[in-house]
Amino acid sequence: MGDPNENARVLDSSEDEHNYEIGTDYEFSLGAGRLKFMGLHRFESSPTVDRTTTTFVNGLVEGTAFTRQADEAESIIRAELSFPALNSQWRWSLEATDNYLDLDSQLDRLDAQGVFIPVDLPDAEARVEETRTESTLNVSKRLNEQLTFQATVGAEYSKIKQTGSSNVTRDFVRPKGFLALNYRPTNDLFLSAKLERAVGQLRFFDFIASLDVNQERENVTNVNLVPPQSWDLTLEAQQSLGKSGNLTLSLFYEDVEDIVDRIPIKGGGQAPGNIDKASTYGGFFDATFLSDEFLWKGGRADISLGYINSKVKDPILGNTRKISDEFYKSYELRLRQDFNNTPWAIGAVVDYEEEAPSVRIDEVSFNNRSRGTLYFYVEHKDVMGLTVKAFAWNLLGAENRFRRTVYSDRLANEVLFSEHRSRNFGYSYTLVIEGAF
Questions:
Q1: Any residues with CB less than 8 A from the CB of 296 and at least 6 apart, and which?
Q2: Most exposed among 27, 198, 356, 412, judged by the fewest C-beta atoms under 10 Å?
Q3: CA separation (Å) from 270 to 3, 206, 360, 407?
Q4: Is the pLDDT of residue 371 over 80?
Q5: What is the DSSP string of 350-378?
Q6: What percent of the chain lies above the pLDDT cut of 70?
Q7: Strands, E assignment, 111-222
Q8: Mean predicted confidence (pLDDT) in 115-140
Q9: Which residues in 187-290 belong to E strands, given as ranges?
């Protein structure tokens, strides 16, 4: 029971999702080359209900419920023709995609009798659909025994239509492609460099008004979203340690146009929208070490480190900050011991991941775990031909921590309230049985 001298707030969220995916491909010889056809169709239906009720010490009860039926579908047809010519290997591709998102939403509030009553909700029904076609030509050529060159040139055409309270159709033509060099100076060392003109994809939910009853946040409709584009430079080095493992270091820089972040919307409110310029840079380091050659048999350690920094101009303050909700840093350590001449193995994993603060027009928030999560498992690789794994999760007792500051005017730094909370999500145990038939 809660303290009768304190307000009590209850959040109830539910989702009853079902989905399916069908795919096929067929490949055959055509002249000196190979022609491959691929097809994919997927559908997802996601009815969700988010409901909050707050009981105050004076007996007053307030409540809000947001119900949404979301139906998504994607259909893809792709053809690839691979053929040799001019001492090079070529691949031409043509792809057509049709996507849509249908949303039907409802907002209810508790009345004085304690009954949820529907209230007006802008853009309660809306649909976003996209038809996209792209064609690319790729060439790969070995310049000598150590150096390989690759290049792709192509373009993407997309038409986006939004219906509901708005009826807007827009189309875009975007060039895309890359240049890459792969260099292997020795059998153990591989180096690569890649410069790419990339085109991002939009999240259809960002177009349409939404409501977060838990955090009391609202996004209005934004019909002016455009796909982001970027120039991406990637450098990578892979060092083989032979039977002792391998090392990989990847560094990158991205110069982005029309990055999607939170912006004020003309006419009032806020929503995901485009900011003219942004940049991201960082790197990832991965290492695998095997114990067989210098310690004991069957041991393995995998280490992964990641760091990304980003810069974008805040649309309210005008200062430079990180891109909202962008991946920031992570680490992961995996340990595994296979016991020779037995089907048994044990392992443990500890990991941590952090994102940049979420920045809205009137709010700055940060959500992360208090410390890394740790899980342990025991594996038997032959139980009647099946692999059985038993897991114990969250052995460090990590907590979800959330803090935010809400402003009446972030430009004037006028704070309405601040919130800090920590939630322990406890321990869990799972049993996994897998195998091929």
A1: none
A2: 412
A3: 37, 11, 8, 14
A4: no
A5: EEEEEEPPEE-SSEEEEEEESS-EEEEEE
A6: 99
A7: 116-119, 125-142, 147-163, 168-186, 189-199, 210-212, 217-219
A8: 93
A9: 189-199, 210-212, 217-219, 229-240, 245-264, 270-290
To which residue do tokens 């159709």 refer?
169
d(CA 411, CA 423): 31
- Return the closest-CA partner of residue 228 out of 279, 193, 162, 271: 279
Other Cβ atoms within 10 Å of 204 Cβ, number: 22
Contact partners, residue 246, CB within 8 Å, separation at least 6: 238, 239, 240, 287, 288
Please give the single-letter amino acid code of residue 252: F
- Identify whether the C-beta of residue 363 lies closer than 8 Å to the C-beta of residue 403: no
324: exposed, middle or buried (Cβ count in 10 Å: 0-12, 13-18, 19+): buried
CB 367 within 8 A of CB 401: yes
Q: How sure is the predictor about 113, in pLDDT bands with cuts at 50, 70 and 90?
A: confident
Residues near 94 by Cβ (< 8 Å), separated by ≥ 6? 78, 79, 133, 134, 135
Reading phi first (left if > 0) and then psi (alpha if -120 to 50, else beta), residue 242 is in left
Instruction: Report residue 1 as tokens.
Output: 């029971």
pLDDT tens string 48-74: 999 999 998 888 899 999 999 999 999
Angle at 335 between CA 329 and CA 338, to 5 degrees: 155
Q: What is the pLDDT of residues 350-370, one digit of tens each?
A: 999 999 999 999 999 998 887
Nearest to 181 by CA among 172, 173, 189, 191: 191
Q: Which helix (H) or strand (E) holds 421?
A: strand 414-424
339 Cβ partners below 8 Å, 6+ apart? 298, 345
What is the identity of the amino acid at 211? L
* DSSP code of residue 427: -
Percent of the chain past pLDDT 90, that is, above it, reads 81
pTM: 0.88
d(C-alpha 319, C-alpha 185), whole Å? 45
Kindly state the average pLDDT of the residues 190-202.
96
Contact of 407 with 413, CB cutoff 8 Å: yes
Tokens of 129: 């659909």
